[in-house]
Amino acid sequence: MKISVVIPALNEEEPIAAVVRDCLATGLPAEVIVVDNGSTDRTGDRARDAGAKVVAEPIPGYGRACAAGIRAVSPDCEIVVFLDGDGSDCPEFMEQLVQPIVRDEQDFVIGSRTRGKREAGSMNFQQVFAGRVAGALLRLLYGVRYSDMCPFRAIRRNALEKLGMKEVTYGWNLEMQMRAARMRLRILEIPVDHRCRTGGESKVSGTLRGTFVAGTRIIATLFRVAAERSQRTLKMRK
Ligand SMILES: Nc1nc2c(ncn2[C@@H]2O[C@H](COP(=O)(O)OP(=O)(O)OP(=O)(O)O)[C@@H](O)[C@H]2O)c(=O)[nH]1
Ligand SMILES: [Mg+2]
């Protein structure tokens, strides 16, 4: 099956080339798409030199960048893999993510950093805790078990397109998990290893502002998507 990798990136000139090369070295993707979300450094050039197709999304937003990446995948792409551009996800797990989809056993396979081996300092307490809390809430809402909001994931392209993703910033990862569960996709979570970023600076969990902005967006997404569900249920009961 034809696999496309989408990497949202903002000012990742140090780690991005190795991330792209490591993805290509797995021999799995037909293309690696880096979405440069208005970087002020040489992220785009470095990604291109390493063999990625680079698309620009000038309006800031993690989710917006992911959506731009999806629009840029080749028409014959069948599986989309997402991962971060900071070198913290381990592309050697890509095969484990895509194989269950290739074998037609799953539609959505997501990594779990909390269940995998984590390099010391690669995830802080708040990230681990938030992943567990989100997992518990999604289990209550949809009966699906998640233990993380890991950005490293693979999804069947036609299923992804049916999800109707709307989130434009940091709630994107959680929204995909909620919509996939609600659509009753076949979902598998597998432990993946996780490293500290391999260069550059943290935009999210490593800063107070980033943690606050991302945390607020994630909570807002949780309520918004959960509320859609109850509105639908109410309409159906009427
Ligand atoms: N497109 C886009 N990507 C972003 C934005 N903010 C962060 N990213 C990317 O999202 C990924 C996660 O951001 P990080 O800064 O690594 O956040 P983190 O993983 O919580 O923090 P670290 O501990 O430093 O790894 C990286 O690939 C960033 O380049 C954004 O506003 N737009
Ligand atoms: Mg990171």
Short description:
By secondary structure, the protein is α/β, with parallel strands linked by helices. The protein has helices at 16-25, 43-49, 62-72, 94-102, 125-142, 157-163, 172-182, 208-237, and strands spanning 3-9, 31-36, 53-56, 79-82, 108-112, 153-156, 187-191.
Explain what the structure shows.
Helix content is 43%, strand content 15%. It starts with a strand and ends with a helix. It is globular. A 7-stranded mixed beta sheet has the order 3-2-1-4-6-5-7, sandwiched between helices. The longest helix is centred in the C-terminal third of the chain and has 30 residues, at 208-237. The protein is an alpha/beta fold and 238 residues long. It binds guanosine-5'-triphosphate and magnesium ion. Magnesium ion is lined by residues 84, 86, 88, 197.
Bound molecules: guanosine-5'-triphosphate, magnesium ion
Proportion of strand residues: 5-15%
Structural class: alpha/beta
Give the H and E element order. EHEHEHEHEHEHHEH
Number of helices: 8
Radius of gyration: 17 Å
Low-confidence stretches: none
Widest sheet: strand order?
3-2-1-4-6-5-7
The main β sheet shows up as: 7 strands, mixed
- Fraction of residues in H or I helices: 40-55%
Mean pLDDT comes to: 95
Overall morphology:
globular
What is the tally of beta strands? 7
Distance between the termini: 43 Å
